[in-house]
Prior knowledge:
Number of helices of chain A: 2
Shape of chain B: globular
Radius of gyration of chain B: 20 Å
Number of domains of chain B: 1
Strand content of chain A: 25-35%
Structural class of chain A: alpha/beta
Shape of chain A: elongated
Helix content of chain A: 10-25%
Structural class of chain B: alpha+beta
Order of helices and strands of chain A: EEEHEHEEEEEE
Helix content of chain B: 25-40%
Largest sheet of chain B: 7 strands, antiparallel
Strand order of the largest sheet of chain A: 3-2-1-4-5
Distance between the termini of chain B: 24 Å
Number of helices of chain B: 13
Oligomer: heterodimer
Amino acid sequence: MTNRPRYAPLSPFAQARAHLLLCDGAAIPDDAFAPGHGLTDFPERWTVAGHALVMPQPFGAPSEQRFRSASHLLALLRHRLAAETMGLRIYAVGSEPFVWDVAKIAREAGMGREEMRLFACGAPERRVACVHCRTVNPGVTTTLVTCAGCGAVLTVRDHFSRVHNTWMGVQCDAEAPGEVPPVEDLCA
Amino acid sequence: MATRFKPDETFRDDFRYGNSETAILRFPFPFGEDAYMYGVNMEPHTRPGSAGVFAVGFDVDEHYVAECAERAKVLALEPGRCLVLPHMREAEWDTLELIMESLAADYPDQFTLERDGLDWTWTNRPLGIHHTFRFGDATTLPHPPFEYIVRQAQGDFTLQDQRDGTLYIDGGVATVPADWSLAFDVGMTFHEWHGPVPLAHQAGVFDRALQYLMRVRYGHPARRLNWTMTINPRLDTSPENYPLWGPDRASLTAETIGDRLFLRVELQSFFRLPRSNALLFGIRTYLASLNELTRVPKWGRRLHRVMRDLHPDIAEYKGLTRYRELLVAYLAQFDDGAPTAPGITPDCAALSD
């Protein structure tokens, strides 16, 4: 047992006025959805195109809206939720940092944990916060990372903050400098 | 007998710290038997007839003045060690009231609280504080109400909001943490912030502890003991500063371990707050060196047996692995194999030399 988030495959909430599915543009595996469910259960879908030739409608009717980047999508999600009323449920599927960014924006807009469902997929990737110098190191795919802020080689504790969307990084050789364990890929 | 404070004690740099014989005999030794495993070891706090550190809500001992100075030092260097989310304002005032009322009732020679409606006057003689303020009006205090009062109390405190069938850690002060970060953990649920603890989850300890805590009623606080070990009498063993204190763990020798290795006991207390319905956790830390503790023969014997037989996952989580062999070898001299009586009391009137 650790403080590592676990995810259940997505299915729409039974009681809701509207459903909004947010994707980061990566391929969505079949196991992201509960048996009998799929993309078509979520009539309003936002996804990331990865280029600047799109102009999405944040208040569009049920349809697929394509955003220029994850940052673009998240900024307009904040805008959309600020104008929302009760009864909307949101769903996020994509990398772990992405789905928890969505959760954070939803929480800041006043939504509770029981009003959203998240499913992280794809190759493991973490944001690691250096507990010593507060620098957040994005895109970490290994068990050790050299902190961009203070240079410490951080080991990543099995301790995830849903509020900060970061894993806790702690200097791995603080007790005996140079005693660094082997680096492993998070996929392993 | 009035407590004689030791204002010159330090918990960093030159580490000037020690326990009087009285302090050793009232030390909350955490092992009631010769073996240790995680459990839901919760019981009512401040029961009539309780003695020593268990007799009052917030124990004030000979280290009070020095520990308050240490807290002020940490907060001056790292103000983020005290952090309360905005929806916990009412719980801040609840905390201030609870601690002031308790200290004034339990130590009338040292602390006085006079109330005239919402106009309160607080006198803290050990720290030389005398303030008149308006209860509920934060502009009348030099710090926010939670920070104001925890600067005048020993040990760390956290504020838990109870909602969604769990407890959220939504505020606190952690200048005396046993390797946990308030800034990182803030906003987590009870199970999330305890995630890294080994073995206890599988045993259902946290499920049962949470159920117990959510039922704690106003006026009926609860408590438990927890423990770890610290090299030197260092209160600030925060993960933030681990690069500064981590090397200590590799520095012990057979000659120094008796004086430099400290059993670190947390007297954790749990209080329901009246207006906010939040739960206040007190995490009061007591430090005693091996050489101090082994002056109680029962504790010396027991400490050897507990450390020798400790589950390796617990030893690793508590950071003992690097020096555990040295520790057990050192403690062996205090274990003659005689049976020990159940319970944590020292069972001796005076200390051995």
